[in-house]
Model the fold of this input.
Amino acid sequence: MTAEKKIILPKELYSKLDLIKDSEEVEVVEIAKDSFTIRAANVRNQCDYAPRWFLLPTVIVTIVFLIIALVMRYRTIPLTGDMSIGTAVDILANGTAFITFILAYVARRKKLYRHMTKKIYWRTFITVVVSELIISTLSLVALFWFFDQIFYGAGFDVVTSTIIFGVFAGILNYFIIFVVDNFSIEMLVNMLILVMVGGLIASMATNGNQYWWKRNFSILGTSQSNSSFQFNLTLIISGALFIALIDYIFVALADQVGRSWRHLTLRILLTLTALCIAGVGLIPNNVDYTSHAHFWHDQIAILIVFFMGLAVLGIRWLFPEAGKEFIYISYGVVVFLVVSYVSWKMIGYLNLTAFEIISFAASFSWLMLFINRLTKMLQGVHEIYEVSFADVIDNQTGASEKKDED
Done:
């Protein structure tokens, strides 16, 4: 290799690029005026296993689908419905993709250790894999609901149905490999957004009562809704994902900037908020004479407001690193929530459902902004290295070797 093409890297950067030999090759990409990106030249070869990982389970589950169709002697298989291609994709293909995700996530754990510590990896393992299952399931339900609206009554013969099923199974399994290969803290945030927003919207669309909004938001999780299980599970998984995010971010933050009672207090408040979000899903707002669920559901919902309010109002003292701009945004959110509460409770301009949706949107937006601020802080800790031209280093090395020979 010529001198002008040599790059000297510190040992820690060399190991982070997963370089093993003394003279590995790297690529310089995304070159800008004041920055560029270095990656291992063999990074593409590391993904060569992906076709094997997604092809094998795809072929197996497609054969299983074909065998079931032949044994049941189906002549035509509907696209959607109880015994349909959509149901098979949601159960067989999605189940296989879930197993693929677990195996790939475990197999690639050493690579993921570079993004998170070993302790955080295993602490968030269950939350991540279950969230993946929830996201893929909700996405498939929404997709085939849409197909049912535009292809109502469509059906196909066994061969065509098998091909359609195989295509969906292949896409699912390949997407799973893509997620594992590109998993990061940003993806964990996106998973939280997808689970929370997607789950709630899907619950609104499939609850079976078009006038649910005349009551309150919590009715989606009661026995009066067809989507109560989905709604409550969305809250539970969202709470678990939120806890995993807070755990990951604050542990990493403590490693970089040190421990602080302020950060610990804020972490506790946000964790309690997440636990209450999951608690609202665990205890549906069912009103009957033999259960205290309604009372405890309301108390936990009130605690969400309480812990969240303390975190937002105390952000100036608990996390001064957030900056004045974010602190002003936090106070603006508080004012907005107060105005919304007055409009609902005292003026009567908003109904309860509108107030709940507005409050959720404002609070969730603040949480996403805060998490984004935290992740930027983690990425903002940089090391400073001294650089020089490779030919200068080579000349110095050559001069040193010549001196030793003399």
Q: What stands out?
A: The CA atoms of residues 29 and 37 lie 5 Å apart. The two ends are 26 Å apart (CA to CA).
